[in-house]
Amino acid sequence: MRRDVFQAIADPTRREIINIIARQSLNLNAVADNFEVSRPAISKHIKILTECGLVIIRQQGRERFCEANLSSLGQVSDWIDQYRVFWAGKLDALENFLANEKVTPLKKERRKKTKNK
Predict the structure, then answer these.
(1) Nearest to 68 by CA among 110, 14, 4
(2) Does 54 lie in the same domain as 9?
(3) Number of structural domains, the chain?
(4) Residues 28 and 10 reside in one and the same domain
């Protein structure tokens, strides 16, 4: 079963596994030592990360080492970018609106003072 990267990063434990092995390649036991859950639970998380391509398992002798393959996180970045553009536009519009609101009451106050003189 091929999972997608969004499913993989949805879990905080899997995100932490990615953070750990992004710094250095570790064997499965070394990865599991960073968590308070069982080694089989970590193995299941690593299997999901492997299925979506975020982790590559490299056999070295009797040891299996986990390496991060972060290239598929580009999908997440692309997806987020569309919302970054959307919200940047909304916040710019809000900033313009608020800037105009600040100016408008001052103009009204000046007009009142000028008429009363």
Answers:
(1) 14
(2) yes
(3) 2
(4) yes
